[in-house]
């Protein structure tokens, strides 16, 4: 009976809104890792190197290496330049910040090499003309081992390239 009356009524009765209490504090977004809660980020000293070899215009070998240094020298060296990597690290869930940094530097090789390109790079070209006037060439492109400091800052990986 009530449903028939509601169908014929012009107005549908609404419950009176109740006053909701306001939250007492503003929710702060969660940090990526527990170390990110610290005021100063954990800086990880690493050595990165890269080498690519090509024969007749075709890449035949490539090596990208990230290593922990045997001796830490970052406290004595000056920063040559700084760059940051905008990487989607929201999906990376870990409590170990150093693991997250190494994972990102390993899996975002192109962005890291673009950062290191600002520094020193060497290219060696060897060309040889054979008796059939065919040119055989060999090119080596390399970044010598470069010492860096890497850390997470506001979900970006910041790379400080050190001057040796």
Automatic annotation (TrEMBL):
- What domain of life does the UniProt record list for this protein's source? Bacteria
Please state what the protein is called. Uncharacterized protein
The record lists the organism as: Helicobacter canis NCTC 12740
Q: What is the lineage of its organism?
A: Bacteria, Pseudomonadati, Campylobacterota, Epsilonproteobacteria, Campylobacterales
